[in-house]
Design brief:
The chain is of the alpha/beta class and about 230 residues long. It is about 35% helix and about 25% strand. The chain contains 8 helices and 9 strands. The protein is globular and about 45 Å long. The two termini are about 30 Å apart. This is Methyltransferase family protein.
Length: about 230
C-alpha cells in the first residue's frame, strides 16, 4: 500500500474506537486470543501492533511481548500502554532484521494482512522468526463480506479504496480465502484452524443491529491459526 502509514493520521481516534468497540473488543480480539491459547511465559511477536490493545492483554496473561507497526504514532501509543514490551516502527515490506531465526513462540497478526503488497514475503519472515512448535494467528476481513459489499468477482485480487464511517480513508487488498491459504502455504505454513467468529454475547447491547448481523452473516472477520510446516 506504499510507504505512508495510513493509520497514523487517526491513530488516537482508532484507539478510542477499538478499545471497547464491538468489532474489535468483542469480536476480533477474543477470537485471536482464543487461538493463541495459553501465552504465560511465552514470547509473542505482535505484528502490526497498533495502539497496543492485543499486547496489553497478552502481557496481562503472562507473555513477553515485542512488536512493531508501520505507524509511528501507533508505536508511541503502544509503548505508553505496555511499558514492559519492546516496540518499534517497522514496515512489513522490509525484513525483520532485528529478530533472529527461531526467536519467538507465537505471532499475532491481526487485521493487517490486507495492507501488505507482498504478503508471501512478509509471511515468510514471520515463519522464519517462529520457533519449532510455534504458531501464527492472523485475522483478516471475511472475503465473503468484502465481496458482498464491493461486488465484482469474488476471485479477483484487487485494491479498493474506502471511506469508513468515521471519515477514515483507507486502501487495502481484497482477496478470496483461497489466496490467503495459498500464501500461507507458499510461506511455509500449514493451516491448523479456521474460525468464523461470532461476537461475544455481552456485546449484544453495544450496537444491536451490528451484533445480530455478525451472528448470522459472514460480513465481519475470520481468524486463522497456522503452524510452521516441519517439512520446510
Amino acid at each position: 500500500m506504499g510507504p505512508d502509514p495510513q493509520y497514523d493520521a487517526f491513530a488516537d481516534e482508532f484507539l478510542e474506537h477499538a478499545r471497547d468497540g464491538l468489532f474489535n473488543a468483542h469480536y476480533d480480539r477474543p477470537a485471536c486470543l482464543d487461538l493463541l491459547g495459553d501465552v504465560a511465559g511465552r514470547t509473542v511477536l505482535d505484528a502490526a501492533c497498533g495502539p497496543g490493545l492485543y499486547a496489553e492483554e497478552l502481557v496481562a496473561r503472562g507473555a513477553r511481548v515485542t512488536g512493531f507497526d508501520h505507524s509511528p504514532r501507533m508505536v508511541e501509543l503502544c509503548r505508553q500502554r505496555v511499558p514492559s514490551g519492546e516496540f518499534r516502527v517497522h514496515d512489513l515490506a522490509d525484513p525483520l532484521g532485528w529478530l533472529p531465526d527461531d526467536s519467538v513462540d507465537l505471532v499475532v497478526f491481526a487485521l493487517a494482512l490486507e495492507y501488505v503488497d507482498d504478503r508471501v514475503s512478509a509471511l515468510r519472515e514471520l515463519r522464519r522468526v517462529l520457533r519449532p512448535g510455534g504458531a501464527l494467528v492472523l485475522s483478516r476481513p471475511h472475503p465473503t463480506g468484502d465481496w458482498l459489499r464491493h461486488g465484482g468477482s469474488y476471485f479477483d485480487v484487487r485494491v479498493i479504496e474506502e471511506v469508513w464511517s468515521k471519515g477514515w480513508r483507507l486502501r487495502y487488498w481484497l482477496a478470496p480465502l483461497e489466496r490467503t491459504c495459498e500464501e500461507l502455504r507458499a510461506a511455509g505454513f500449514l493451516l491448523e484452524r479456521l474460525l468464523e467468529p461470532r461476537p461475544r454475547p455481552e456485546a449484544a447491547d453495544l450496537h444491536r443491529e451490528d451484533y445480530q448481523r455478525l451472528c448470522r452473516e459472514p460480513t465481519g472477520f475470520l481468524a486463522l491459526r497456522a503452524v510452521p510446516d516441519p517439512r520446510r
